[in-house]
Amino acid sequence: MSYVDEVYELVVEKNPAQPEFHQAVKEVLESLRVVIEANEEEYRKEALLERLTTPERVILFRVPWVDDKGQVQVNNGFRVQFNSAIGPYKGGLRFHPSVNLGIIKFLGFEQIFKNSLTSLPIGGGKGGSDFDPKGKSDREVMAFCQSFMTELYRHIGSDTDVPAGDIGVGGREIGYMYGQYKRIKDVYEGVLTGKGLTYGGSLARTEATGYGLLYLTREMLKSNGIDIAGKTIAISGAGNVAIYAAQKAIQMGAKVVTCSDSTGWIYDPEGIDVDLLKEVKEVKRARLTEYAAARKSAEYHEKKNGEHGVWTVKCDIALPCATQNELDLEDAKALVANGVTAVCEGANMPTTLDATKYLQDNKILFVCGKASNAGGVATSALEMSQNSERLSWTFEEVDKKLEQIMINIFHNIDDAAKKYGKEGDYVTGANIAGFLKVAEAMKAQGIV
Ligand code: GLU
């Protein structure tokens, strides 16, 4: 059996009941086949793929806290420190009821390659909890965040592991966790990114994932002879990534006609009103029904079981910005039937493996999240740089750097795909380009 297949079987066997982790590993290993098989014995002897797919450290902990009724609640806390070959562990914290070890491992594994692609010195990690901030009071969120950090603090540091936000973790949560870290450790350091601007945060970090997605998408389209201006875009999600992706897409002259949240989705043929969406989601923390109520042109659709939502709408470009496996084979078929030309992932692994294959088989331009959503973590690394030099850069400075990083990522993955005989296959290009830097660093550092 080939080394790649052997390692995939081993991963499935050793990590039972972690389907998302298996899926992320499968996608990467399939892409790496050409690289590994050219030098199979050397990689096998060094067990490089076994080391790559086994986290350096996994931390599991109890998070007890008291709710507003005086009832004690207990959640699970996780931090997976996956790979530190090229820098301190870096990756977000996700607070969502669906969080379990397999989800955090898939996210941490993806983060290794994504962070490598940014060209900045950051390793891969991820963490989170099955705590659901939705419907909780600010005091409950603070109590949870403080308890979470009371354990996590001992495992992180500005040169060790630097968490940030992800689903369910935004400025409010980062603030509470930062305060508790500082209180316990008595050091003022850039241990978290996505901080508020008054205490070490970076300008443009909030916008970075969405803006970065559009910078890369525009460059990819340009290199395929397509102008993004005038195109119709379907976006899923209504969180930080979706909001700023929509904003930048509109600035680039495109029209965004959809967004969604966990209970429903919006079709707005006149184009999404981003200011209204921000008001509903960032200020009121309300449902999209409020968006629909305030905007005549918007149609609201309740999310019913088996309904396919935003991907049934006619569009030129689809940007899945919600969550993993939100775009399945049926959605891919609907998009192709409706004439989509490009799909670029804003979320982590939003497209299932069979949907990805269908899109690629139908010659749809497809970029995977580890390349196209890398703008968030790249800007986190820029926040780390600013914290280290105790300076802060202007919005324009950070935004310019972000834009250049995204353009470089596209050309890097495009070149890697061409070099390995897979022109236009940006998934293979991203996985190979991300892997090569990490593998070289791992080899140089010996068996650790
Ligand atoms: N959660 C984001 C991601 O998936 C950002 C991580 C970070 O900024 O460290 O890449």
What are the SSEs and their pairings?
Blueprint: H1 3-14, H2 19-37, H3 40-45, H4 48-53, E1 57-66, E2 72-83, E3 89-95, H5 101-117, E4 123-129, H6 138-152, E5 161-164, H7 171-185, H8 205-223, E6 232-236, H9 240-251, E7 255-256, E8 258-260, E9 264-267, H10 274-283, H11 288-294, E10 299-302, E11 317-320, H12 329-337, E12 342-344, H13 353-361, E13 365-367, H14 369-372, H15 375-388, H16 395-419, H17 426-444
Parallel strand pairs: 3-4, 3-5, 6-7, 6-11, 11-12, 12-13
Antiparallel strand pairs: 1-2, 2-4, 8-9, 9-10
Helix pairs in contact: 1-2, 2-5, 2-17, 5-17, 6-7, 8-9, 8-15, 8-16, 10-11, 12-13, 15-16, 16-17
Bound molecules: glutamic acid (GLU).
What does this structure look like?
The protein has 448 residues and is an alpha/beta fold. The protein folds into 3 domains: 3-52, no CATH class; 57-189, Rossmann fold (3-Layer(aba) Sandwich); 208-367, Rossmann fold. Helices cover 49% and strands 15% of the residues. The chain contains 17 helices and 13 strands. It has a 5-stranded mixed beta sheet. A 5-stranded parallel beta sheet has the order 7-6-11-12-13, with helices on both faces. Strands 8-9-10 form a 3-stranded antiparallel beta sheet, covered by helices on one side. β12 (342-344), α13 and β13 (365-367) form a beta-alpha-beta unit. α6 crosses α7 (171-185). It starts with a helix and ends with a helix. The relative contact order is 0.13. Bound molecules: glutamic acid. Glutamic acid binds at residues 90-92, 164, 166, 193, 348, 376-377, 380. Residues 90-92, 164, 166, 193, 348, 376-377, 380 line the site of glutamic acid.
